[in-house]
Amino acid sequence: MDKIDTGGMRRFATLALQLGTSTKTNDKLEALEAYFREAADADKVWVIALFSGRRPRRAVTTTQLWEWCRELTGLPAWLFEESYHTVGDLAETIALLLPEDAQVENRQSLAHYLQRLMRLGAEDDTGKKAFILDCWATMNKDERFVFNKLITGGWRIGISQQTVVNALARTTAEEASVVAHRISGDWDPGSTSFAALLSGGGEDLSRPYPFYLAYALEDDLSAPGRPDEWQAEWKWDGIRGQLIRRGDRLYLWSRGEELITDKFPEYQDFLQRLPAGTVLDGEIIGLGSRAVAGALPFVVLPFAALQTRIGRKNISKKHLNEVPVGFIVYDLLEFGGEDWRNKPLTDRRRQLESIVTAAAHPLLQLSPVIAFDNWEQLAAIRATAREHGSEGIMLKRKTSIYQVGRKRGDWWKWKIDPLVIDAVLVYAQKGHGRRSNLYTDYTFAVRAGDQLMTFAKAYSGLTDKELAEVDAFVKKNSLEKFGPVRTVKPELVFEIAFEGIAASSRHKSGVALRFPRIARWRRDKGPEDIDTLDTLKKMLAMYGKQTPSAT
Amino acid sequence: MPLIESTENGLYCAQGQFYIDPWRPVDKAVITHAHSDHARAGSASYLCHRLTLPLLELRLGPHAYQAVEWGEVVYLNGVRVSLHPAGHIIGSSQVRVEHRGEVWVASGDYKTEDDGLSGAFEAVPCHVFITESTFGLPIYNWKPQPELLVSMEEWVRTNAAKDRTSVLIAYSLGKAQRVLAGLAHVVQPIYLHGAVYNVHTALQRAGIPLPEALRVMPDMPKGLFRGKLVIAPPGAEGSSWMRRFGEYALGICSGWMQVRGNVRRRNADAGFAMSDHADWKGLLAAVDATGAERLLVTHGFQAVLARYLSEKGIEAGEVRTEYGEDEETAGAATEESDSAASGLDSAAGEGGLDSATEEGGLDSATGEGAANGQD
């Protein structure tokens, strides 16, 4: 096919539109493939970067964007806000409000805009404004939308990274796993060429391997087969991480493909204790120092403890002492500089054990293997998971190689049933994206004496049909309106499921829940039937004990 | 005493003893257009435009009807009443009411762009203008119809190239005819859902020139629709009626498609922001052209439009009606008036929200959970 239009930003906006609306994975794949065949190399590199979570640092604040848009449109602030709450996305609101599409044909490349955005942070507000206004003036609605999205971030493109990898694999005739590895790691889209990126040229010591992900095992144990073919471990509720020691450097990657080495300075201790050319797969998790007589050589802290460490720019000594973060290792991907992923799990595990034992560091722990003879026995052990601060069991076939992405068959996660509580809906807010202009973001309350106490927000778990029903209820039964939030007559009861509970001084209820979501709508229950704050406190006493007092 | 006021039965002119688009049966009903939330059965007598008459007969059955031309004057108990083109759908009219030198105009539903079928909207000078506000937010500005038709045409051709059926969701009275007339040159034959077909034949009998089209019949083989265009009402969306098309692409024609989230929520492959209602600019232009001293804003974003106009120095208030549901439910599900509730649409369900998808769950998972834990 001819290179019809390498037309930069316009071509990219078309791609984003195709990916955003197409409902068939194959159509998305084709759209991406066509893009990778047609677009200019520099733009392709940026698309790979953007679609794998690499974005330029935000140079313009959202407040600036909306002020400039208001200036151009002359709309009052309240009307701008009203529009925003209906659209549910700032970038899109601005794209819709700006006057007429530009009549000039915009031929600038995507790379051009991104390079400018990268440098924009250094310019003063006058320069920033001039640039943004000039861009808006030369773009159509779709281009403005993607351009604004590049600035505001938070873009759900509607495709998985795997789809990007597959499309690239088709266009470059490479194996998908090879492509996945090449586009991961610490590369700069501003200075990397498409050819260099995909030929794997250039030594990048930090480059991680794609993670192997497990499928959920429902309670049907016929899937795994014979117990002796399987290795069982606890499933930890921390952050999946890949720890790399290559050369004289240590790198830590999160599963979100983010280099987070600096967030966990305690890991630098491991540098001299791990042989060069070692890559470990494991869990980043708070480790308590209390020695408890039990089956495990360590005590894990609830996720809430780890949360106090994530998102902090500077880690003080105090933080390090209060929430020491360890690494529970469960796999070995590279040893002696050699890729070990195609060796069977048993071999990788044997070598892993000797590495961790030799390292002998209290924050570097081996994920214990659970001994079991039959599935009933393992089910009984699984039922005790919460006591160990674990959320279930991982099952890995002993002969399995370390695969790429989520694959069925060799790795299973077998989680324990969530904790549940019945609560009443008290606040509702309009959602975003495909839930825009629908009240889909809810706050729930339990009973505390004759009062209602809010304790959790939940956004997921209802079908579209149920959402529409709740939305209609909210609109008919609003008591008050605070900006985008509506207070709702406390009438609808839902069963809220969550994975864990911890004490929290930040929440009025005194508890923070892990992964709260709506398990089901209890149409059979009224607000008089909901659970109480006491129930939550009892759960906290049973399962939230290990939280350090500092949080 | 106001010339028109909101009562429990509907908008009422006490001096003339008639109602405009009443939502309960009354003695005398003046009907702006044939959509089901504006034209309800059971009233003793009806006054409407000549082209609305066959549609009322189709939808409401036999009643005492009086049909008039645009601009034709009728006196109802001494009040001077005339109908004027509203540009919303075929036959749609604004109601001009004059009594002792005071003129009020009730817009019903209207759009200011001439779609080539419904008659061009006429700005009628008046003292008080009762305006709708379905799309009364500045984010709603439509592309011109020719431009929208070009993008629909491209979409239909792309689908045809992949041997897919294009299913366009459009209200059976209004947009269905616009789409049919606008795309007849692209692909032949065009197939219509039963509800659309009934309206189609009623309009043809009334002498409206429309391109020929075929009704989708139960015994038609699947392969027949490949690469072709089907026009169906929102009630058909997500219903089992759609299964007969095998691999099809779903396109939705609706003003709500202006916002991306709505396209995704309805799981559509394409959204075309085409509406039979005025967009933001259209509303403001109409208000301005009437020269009205006072505005009464009804069904839609009435609070927003009323406040905006008030701040511009125009006296504006809100009026309660039962057209098109309330401010926001209109946006969510029922949208513009014509829905499966008309009784003609054989497909069940009321709108696009039925087709549950798994994406809602995934959204929140990627937000928080996915990066955490070994999974």
Question: Features of this protein?
Answer:
heterodimer, A: alpha+beta, 23% strand, disordered N terminus, disordered C terminus, B: 375 residues, 7-stranded mixed β-sheet, 6-stranded mixed β-sheet, 24% helix
Structural write-up:
The complex is a heterodimer of chains A (551) and B (375). Chain A is an alpha+beta fold and 551 residues long. Helices cover 34% and strands 23% of the residues of chain A. Chain A is built from 18 helices and 23 strands. In chain A, helix 1 (8-21) crosses helix 9 (141-152) and helix 2 (25-38) packs across helix 10. Chain A is globular, with a radius of gyration of 26 Å. Chain B has 375 residues and is of the alpha/beta class. Chain B has helices spanning 53-60, 145-161, 175-183, 194-205, 260-265, 280-290, 302-311, 329-334, 359-369, and strands spanning 5-6, 11-13, 18-20, 28-30, 45-49, 64-68, 73-76, 79-85, 93-99, 102-106, 128-133, 165-169, 190-192, 214-215, 229-232, 248-253, 270-272, 294-300, 315-318. In chain B, strands 7-8-9-10-11-18-19 form a seven-stranded mixed beta sheet, covered by helices on one side. The longest helix of chain B has 17 residues, at 145-161. Chain B is globular, with a radius of gyration of 21 Å. Chains A and B meet through helix 5, helix 6 and helix 17 of A and helix 5, helix 7, helix 8 and helix 9 of B.
